[in-house]
């Protein structure tokens, strides 16, 4: 019997409802495996105005959340309980490299990186994300991850945004959120009709796959989009960590 793989899923913002929103997709992923345990971590709230981050809406917020969370995560790394760590913020989140540096024997990834790895075997992929600022930031991140320049890739279709923050995905009327996600998907598919995968570009967008599907169908028709895969970074990250941890212990 394989040893139990223990994974810590890290929400580096203080929005507990966002963390709880990850549980259904985590549970669905774990149902495909035996002897895997996932725990969820939410950034503690700071006692001062500066420190913790409620909604990560820019690379600067990502850095601030990483610097704030790292001291709280170090005891969880030091106790040796976890075999892998998943940073559940769709960005080039600094916690990925920070945790890798302090625990080189463990496996660490982010949902951004995991979604790219999962998409590469499917064909051309694009990203639907939250705020406008992420269009350029995630494009640069994909270019760095793939080792390309100027989006010169047959694999990458680009990024489209909903105009909402991560917090607004939970605070706004769900119909409004779905409509914004659908419209962003329409823009992505209209410019790259040969797209094969769409990455869900925010942990807070978990559960809105139906809006992405409607956007695809608007452009390609009900039958035309059946082959397009929706890649959810939390599921991809958990799957990758299970494989990576088991390979490391083989």
Short account of what is shown:
By secondary structure, this protein is of the alpha/beta class. It has helices at 16-21, 23-30, 59-78, 94-102, 111-120, 133-146, 168-171, 174-191, 209-224, 233-249; strands at 5-11, 36-42, 84-87, 107-110, 125-129, 156-161, 197-201, 229-232.
Describe what this molecule looks like in 3D.
By secondary structure, the protein is an alpha/beta fold. The protein has helices at 16-21, 23-30, 59-78, 94-102, 111-120, 133-146, 168-171, 174-191, 209-224, 233-249; strands at residues 5-11, 36-42, 84-87, 107-110, 125-129, 156-161, 197-201, 229-232. The strands form two sheets. It has a four-stranded parallel β-sheet with strand order 2-1-3-4, with helices on both faces. A four-stranded parallel β-sheet has the order 6-5-7-8, with helices on both faces. Helix 2 packs across helix 10, helix 5 crosses helix 10 (233-249) and helix 8 packs across helix 9. The longest helix is centred in the first third of the chain and has 20 residues, at 59-78. The protein is globular, with a radius of gyration of 18 Å. The two termini are 12 Å apart. 46% of the residues are buried. The mean pLDDT is 93.
């Amino acid at each position: 019997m394989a040893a139990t793989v223990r994974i810590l899923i890290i929400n580096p913002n203080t929005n507990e409802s966002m963390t709880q929103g990850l549980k259904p997709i985590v549970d669905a992923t774990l149902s495909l495996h035996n002897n895997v345990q996932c725990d969820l971590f939410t950034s503690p709230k700071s006692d001062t105005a500066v420190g913790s981050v409620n909604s990560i809406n820019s690379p600067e917020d990502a850095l601030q959340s990483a610097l704030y969370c790292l001291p709280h995560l170090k005891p969880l790394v030091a106790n040796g309980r976890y075999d892998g760590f998943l940073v559940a913020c769709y960005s080039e989140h600094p916690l990925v490299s920070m945790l890798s540096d302090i625990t080189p024997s463990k496996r660490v990834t982010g949902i951004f990186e995991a979604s790219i790895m999962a998409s590469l075997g499917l064909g051309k992929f694009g990203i639907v994300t939250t705020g406008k600022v992420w269009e350029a930031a995630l494009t640069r991140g994909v270019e760095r991850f793939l080792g390309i320049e100027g989006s010169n890739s047959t694999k990458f279709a680009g990024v489209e945004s909903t105009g909402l923050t991560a917090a607004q995905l939970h605070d706004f009327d769900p119909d409004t959120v779905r409509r914004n996600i659908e419209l962003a998907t329409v823009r992505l598919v209209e410019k790259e009709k040969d797209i094969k995968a769409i990455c869900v570009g925010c942990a807070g967008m978990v559960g809105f796959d139906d809006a992405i599907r409607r956007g695809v169908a608007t452009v390609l028709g009900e039958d035309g989009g059946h082959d397009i895969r929706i890649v959810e970074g939390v599921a991809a990250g958990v799957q990758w960590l299970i494989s990576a941890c088991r390979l490391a212990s083989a």
